[in-house]
Specification:
Length: 67
């Protein structure tokens, strides 16, 4: 399970630092979550795809009334 570490700790035989995202076995992950040392890592959503812009047509001069 992917966790974001909230506090420096040792788990699964390695040192985990604040802010680190670590892939840990389910049992170890459950323990860190229960102790409040980590939270489930959430992948940021991809940026929204911009809608295609309307195509511009060539500007035609505005007709002027003739006197």
């Amino acid at each position: 399970m992917r966790l974001q570490i909230l506090s420096n700790c040792r788990a699964d035989g390695r040192h985990l630092s604040i802010g680190e995202v670590a892939e840990l076995p389910q049992g170890v992950a459950d323990e860190l979550l229960a102790l409040g040392l980590a939270e489930i890592a959430v992948e940021p959503a991809p940026p929204p795809v911009p809608e295609p812009k309307a195509r511009r047509t060539k500007a035609f001069p505005t007709p002027t009334p003739e006197d």
